[in-house]
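YM 10:42: UPF0102 protein JSE7799_00786 sequence, as discussed on the call
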Amino acid sequence: MSGTVSYHSGFAAEECVVRHYTLAGHAVLARRWRGKGGEIDVIAQDGENTVFIEVKKSDTHAAAAARISDRQIRRIFDCASEYMETLPGGLLSPVRFDVALVDATGRVEVIENAFHA
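YM 10:58: structure's back
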C-alpha cells in the first residue's frame, strides 16, 4: 500500500472509531496525539478514565488484531505515560487501554482493557 493510500485508509478507520466512541457517549480528547516516543491514535474520556485507543484496520477484525506487536504496546505505554503527566492526577490517573479493530466494511470492534495484565 502506498504511503498516501495507507494514510487515508488509517484516517478513515480512525474516523469510524471516533464516531463509535462519540455515539457511546465518550468525549474524544485527541486524535493522533504525538509524544516523544510516538503517537497514540485516539484519546477519549470515559467517566473518570482516560482511554488510550490503538486503531488497527485490516480486512477482518482477526487480521487487524494480529497486527499488534509487543513493540507497539511498549510504545503506547510510553506515550500514554507522557500524556498522563499533563493530567491533574498525573501518573496516578485512572486510565484504560483499548484496541479498536476496523474491518474492510468499516465495522468497529472494541477490545476494552486490551493490554490489561
